[in-house]
Amino acid sequence: MTDAVVMETEPEAVQGGGGWKKRVRLNAALLPSVGAALLPKLTCPACWPAYAGLLSSLGVSFVDYTPYLMPLTGFFLVISVFALAFRARLRRGYGPFALGLASAMTVMVGKFGYDNDPVMYTGLAVLVAASVWNSWPRPRQGAGPDCPACVEAEV
Q: 103: which residues sit within 8 A by CB, 6+ positions away?
């Protein structure tokens, strides 16, 4: 009784005897999805050289990104400097913003004006320093040695 129920509910490809062609056809439908899962993804920067190698072996040269490099660099530098300026009065003032603005201009001039790598990397290091300075927490108001909570803690 149970064998008859199982035989009726299972598809023909899973049932024994003679259905191997259907089983192969059903499993072959999985191959494109498995192949796509094994391919490198476009969002993985480590996979880009694999794509470049594959395309160049087929005779296709890789995409020339140089026309887009300057506008994209400027766009991302504007975003980082805007982040330094956003609510600057509530954090460390306008010092980190001014330092970040100067370093962003140094990066642009060092990379695209003079094509000087040490100048560009110095500008990047100063931009990182301005970001760290901006994110460093301010000391609390009135948290000196005369603070009542500090005096009680020392006793």
A: 123, 124, 126, 127, 130
Collapsed DSSP state (helix, strand, coil) of residue 66: helix
Q: How far is Cα 33 from Cα 10, in angstroms, rounded to an integer?
A: 24
pLDDT at 145: 59
Q: Tell me how far apart the alpha carbons of residues 155 and 149 are, in angstroms, rounded to a whole number.
A: 10
Task: Check residue 103 and give its pLDDT.
Answer: 93
Residue 126 burial by Cβ neighbours in a 10 Å radius (0-12, 13-18, 19+): middle
Tens-digit pLDDT profile for residues 22-53: 766 666 666 666 666 656 556 677 777 777 77
Tokens of 124: 């990047």
